[in-house]
Amino acid sequence: xxxxxxxxxxxxxxxxxxxxxxxxxxxxxxxxxxxxxxxxxxxxxxxxxxxxxxxxxxxxxxxxxxxxxxxxxxxxxxxxxxxxxxxxxxxxxxxxxxxxxxxxxxxxxxxxxxxxxxxxxxxxxxxxxxxxxxx
Length: 135
Fold this sequence. Notes:
Elements: E1 27-30, E2 36-39, E3 47-48, E4 51-52, H1 53-60, H2 69-74, H3 77-89, E5 100-101
Helix pairs in contact: 1-3
């Protein structure tokens, strides 16, 4: 499994992972219910404070997926994760998309969706201390 990451909605920064030369910084996953999930040391695999982002995405959008609360509660996390991935990359509009920020004072409705990071939170080919020829 490779790394994956996002661009913060408020500062346009890549959410770098702990293995990158940039190191990590605190970020917050904003949830549609108003809660926030803080992650201080992103590992690069979609877990924020022990919660899988794609499982969360499926839960947030369960109605659009045609799932009742009972079905949602009875579904294993690995199945929810797959539904979340399919939702993220399925090419349709998502009612409650992923929103990751640096500023914990922001709320879900304050910002736009976080875009996928093309550098996967790790492969920063153009950093000052890296030689572009190595890539």
